[in-house]
Write a structure and sequence with these properties.
Blueprint (H helix, E strand, L loop, with lengths): L1 H10 L4 H14 E2 L8 H5 L5 E5 L5 H9 L4 E5 L3 H14 L4 E4 L3 H8 L5 E7 L17 H10 E11 L2 H12 L4 E3 L17 H8 L5 E7 L2
Parallel strand pairs: 1-4, 2-3, 2-5, 3-4, 5-6
Antiparallel strand pairs: 6-8, 7-8
Length: 223
């Protein structure tokens, strides 16, 4: 039953606009579990700093990042097809061509699709908190995932995370504190400064209305 729900959540139902964007740009901009490690410079048509957002939702933060860093190549990793369609619509409206999408599980994408020490910045905004204790094992931020991130991030690269679940923020801090590969840039603050390129989404605004406190976390890959 859980597998069926996951499949339906992944597929979702695309709006007419999302479906059009999917059909128009999918071949050019989206890869579904590529068999070989992508040649990012070739796919983007240039060599440039590489940024990755894992779980980009409807794509609003990724579009803002692409607008602010047109000189960067950015990759979004997600499996939710309406979100991919929404991102493609946003990129079309902003006339941006510096984003590509991996439609696959992030836990597989890091090791399969990126070379060692190749990413200049990684972002994980509002991963599913899986609030019930019995579901904590499903949380994305786990020691093996952090190890995979460390392997593909360049020394000195930043890792930015945001969550609106206090318990998950504590969990993330504990996991990163247990890693020998990352340094907390704001260890004495309840939250790191909000990135200018992280706009408030409807999902975040709803959490705030419900009384959730948004926590930004910022780390750097040790040199």
């Amino acid at each position: 039953m859980d597998e069926a729900r996951t499949y339906l959540r992944r597929r979702g139902r695309l709006t007419r606009g999302q479906a059009r964007a999917w059909n128009q740009y999918h071949e050019q901009m989206v890869a579904q579990a590529p068999g070989d490690q992508p040649d990012w410079s070739r796919w983007f048509g240039r060599s440039a700093p590489l940024g990755v957002e894992i779980g980009f939702g409807m794509g609003h933060a990724l579009v803002a990042w692409a607008q602010a860093r047109p000189q960067w190549n950015l990759v979004g990793v997600d499996v939710y097809q309406p979100g991919v369609g929404s991102l493609l619509l946003g990129l079309e409206a902003a006339e941006l061509d510096n984003v590509r999408v991996l439609e696959m599980d992030a836990r597989l994408a890091l090791s399969a699709c990126f070379e060692s020490a190749s990413i200049d910045e990684a972002r994980v905004f509002f991963p599913d908190p899986w609030p019930k204790k019995r579901h904590h094992k499903r949380r994305l931020i786990q020691p093996p995932f952090v190890d995979d991130l460390a392997a593909v991030l360049k020394p000195g690269a930043q890792l930015l995370i945001a969550t609106d679940w206090e318990d998950y923020a504590h969990w993330i801090r504990q996991v990163l504190r247990g890693s020998d590969d990352f340094v907390d840039l704001y260890p004495d603050q309840a939250s790191a400064p909000r990135p200018e390129t992280r706009p408030e989404t409807r999902f975040e605004a709803r959490g705030v209305r419900l009384g959730h406190t948004v926590c930004d976390l910022a780390y750097v890959r040790k040199r």
